[in-house]
Write a structure and sequence with these properties.
The complex is a heterodimer of chains A (271) and B (316).
Chain A: H1 2-33, H2 52-60, H3 63-94, H4 100-109, H5 116-128, H6 135-139, H7 146-158, H8 161-169, H9 174-185, H10 187-203, H11 206-211, H12 220-230, H13 235-267
Helix pairs in contact in A: 1-13, 2-13, 3-7, 3-10, 7-10, 10-13, 12-13
Chain B: H1 5-13, H2 18-28, H3 30-59, E1 61-62, E2 72-73, H4 77-83, H5 86-119, H6 124-136, H7 139-149, H8 156-162, H9 178-203, H10 207-215, H11 220-231, H12 233-248, H13 252-257, H14 273-283, H15 287-315
Antiparallel strand pairs in B: 1-2
Classes of the chains: A mainly alpha (271), B mainly alpha (316).
Subcellular location (chain B): Cell membrane
GO cellular component, one term (chain B): plasma membrane
Domain ABC transmembrane type-1 (chain B): 92-308
Chain lengths: 271, 316
């Protein structure tokens, strides 16, 4: 028993020690964002903290526009994903149509291919369509995701078949079953989809940096990168940018984190 | 939603015997099946499979973004040129080095933390959330913060590391330390994510195995090596696989730390296969050459994951 207690305390020591590696970078970002220019690099009391960096950054940069762009793009992709992935997943899990195997293979196959293979032709397509620096260009190519279809399909497979059969006997069509039975049951799985889609889009960098070259069309990640390059000598300003970029994702994560952990547990991993 | 004619029909038919009902269900639900996969089929066709084929064609062409009409087929020319390019091999060696160091390191730390976190009663959720946060934080934000932490003179991490004999330099801008900086950044970003994956795996191990082990007199350490580690083998496979893919794809971090310099700064010390690909395609406008590089990355990832699969199988 003594030994048991000792190992228990040691476990906590390890976990707390490990926490330092995570508290320090996040703490540094928040703390530095609250410093006035004179206080950079010093430890000062909370009474000296200031929000002037936040005011300055909103006044002197295009961050408000980048925020707006990020929000529009993230929600556009999220809504598209929920619709496209969920219907496809249901069909692949529960409707026995001819050619299902081929469609499934095409969807799963996408998870294997790195984006580098597609980004050159897609860039050319976007240029040809005059979609460079546009919401269409930032949203439409990303409305579907093989991994999320797979995740939803795994979920639909776990719903007992008897439920659908009973509904069918009661006269519900396949579409009716999908909307009235399956969707209400899949709140958890949809939560998982929301968090994966939201974090993926909000944090994405390589696509928006490639498909946009006008700073008024930047999303937050691209905006922060330019901000960092411009104000590198002023950590209080760049850290303000870091906090503003990170805060929404942390909030969404805390709201949906249960679903994310569940999603990882049911599918193994994100590809 | 109103049931349409087609599905209505299937309902009437389905009232007959079970055997015929099954076969008819198959054919009549074809329509709804197609309707539901239609959006993804269309989108996938335009934004995935068409570009995939297009890219393959580009990779055999001498073609540039600046003048796509002047494209001409050169067979394997691009691939041959890549294999002969010293910069490609440098970038590849960086990617492989990052993989070989970061992937096992993050897997081991993640496992150790998960096993301990799994056993404690209090603050479990707080620790888990805290460790997981880097994974959901933007790579650009993380790189920005780490650049300040590893800065000469003022960086907290730099100062701490001087106690262990490391020089007081800006790690991200130093030819010798930029790659280790990337490794630290990578491990820090992914370790919490893999810890959660391991936590999920630990939950699937039945408790009676440990009880049996205890009866046989196995102590905690032996239980860990003889029971936990072998039972988690499938999870470890996933963690290593996904780790390889993530690290081989490293791009945002070197992009951000290069600041206004060229990709792979300082002096190519942080080039990865993806930054190599990207600068060929989008800095030098070589869409054909870039496509060939993309397919080489694709092949590499598949080769690595097959290698790993075989390696793990042999051990079992």
């Amino acid at each position: 028993m003594m030994l048991n207690r000792k190992t228990h305390i040691l476990r906590y020591v390890l976990l707390f020690a490990f926490s330092i590696f995570f508290v320090v970078p996040f703490g540094y970002a928040i703390y530095t964002s609250l410093l006035s220019k004179a206080d950079i690099g010093h430890l000062v009391l909370p009474s000296q903290w200031t929000f002037e960096n936040y005011r300055d950054i909103f006044e002197t940069s295009d961050i408000l526009i980048w925020y707006k762009n990020s929000i529009i793009v993230t929600f556009g992709i999220l809504i598209g994903n929920l619709f496209v992935n969920t219907t496809a997943a249901y069909s692949l899990a529960r409707i026995n149509f001819r050619g299902r195997g081929v469609v499934f293979f095409l969807v799963i196959g996408m998870m294997m291919v790195p984006y580098q293979v597609m980004i050159i032709p897609i860039f050319s397509m976007i240029v040809d369509m005059k979609w460079l620096n546009s919401y269409q260009g930032l949203i439409i190519p990303f409305l579907f995701q093989g991994f999320l279809v797979f995740l939803m399909r795994q979920f639909f497979l776990t719903v007992p078949k008897e439920l659908e059969e009973a509904a069918e006997v009661d006269g519900l069509s396949k579409i009716g079953i999908f909307y009235r039975i399956m969707l209400p049951l899949s709140k958890g799985a949809i939560g998982t989809q929301i968090i994966f889609s939201f974090t993926g889009t909000w944090n994405s960098f390589v696509w928006p940096v490639t498909l946009v070259n006008d700073s008024r069309w930047y999303v937050m990640t691209v905006g922060l990168n330019t901000l960092k390059n411009r104000y590198f000598e002023w950590p209080n300003l760049t850290m303000t940018g870091v906090v503003l970029l990170t805060l929404p994702i942390i909030i969404v994560f805390l709201m949906f984190q249960r679903h994310m952990v569940q999603g990882i547990a049911t599918t193994g991993l994100k590809g | 939603m109103k049931p349409n004619l087609e599905t209505n029909l299937s309902l009437h038919k389905s009232k007959r015997g079970f055997g015929s009902r099954l076969s008819e269900l198959g054919s009549s639900s074809n329509f709804v099946g197609y309707l539901f996969v239609a959006p993804i089929l269309i989108l996938m066709g335009i934004w995935f499979y068409y570009p995939l084929v297009q890219s393959l064609i580009y990779s055999f062409q001498d073609i540039s973004f600046l003048n796509p009409d002047a494209a001409k087929f050169i067979g394997l020319g691009n691939y041959v040129e890549i294999v002969q390019d010293k910069d490609f091999w440098t970038a590849l060696s960086h990617s492989l080095l990052l993989t070989v160091v970061a992937v096992p390191l993050q897997a081991i730390i993640a496992l150790v933390i998960a096993v301990n976190l799994n056993k404690v009663m209090h603050l479990k959720g707080v620790f888990r959330t805290l460790y997981y946060m880097p994974y959901i934080t933007s790579t650009i934000a993380v790189t920005t913060v780490f650049m300040y932490l590893f800065m000469q003179n003022d960086g907290i991490a730099t100062q701490l590391l001087t106690w262990f004999g490391f020089p007081d330099v800006s790690w991200y801008a130093n030819v010798k330390y930029a790659l280790p900086f990337l490794m630290i950044l990578t491990v820090w970003t992914y370790v919490g994510f893999y810890m959660v994956v391991y936590l999920g795996g630990l939950q699937t191990i039945p408790n009676d195995i440990y009880e049996a082990g205890r009866v046989d007199g196995a102590n905690g350490w032996q239980q860990f090596w003889k029971l936990t580690v072998p039972m988690l083998k499938p999870v470890t496979f996933l963690v290593i696989m996904s780790g390889i893919i993530n690290v081989m794809q490293l791009f945002d971090q070197p992009y951000a730390l290069a600041r206004n310099g060229s990709l792979g700064s300082p002096a190519g010390a942080t080039s990865t296969i993806v930054t190599y690909f990207y600068s060929q395609a989008f800095s030098f406008n070589r869409s054909g050459y870039g496509s060939a590089a993309a397919f080489i990355i694709f092949a590499l990832i598949i080769a690595l994951s097959m290698l790993q699969k075989r390696f793990l199988k042999e051990e079992i």
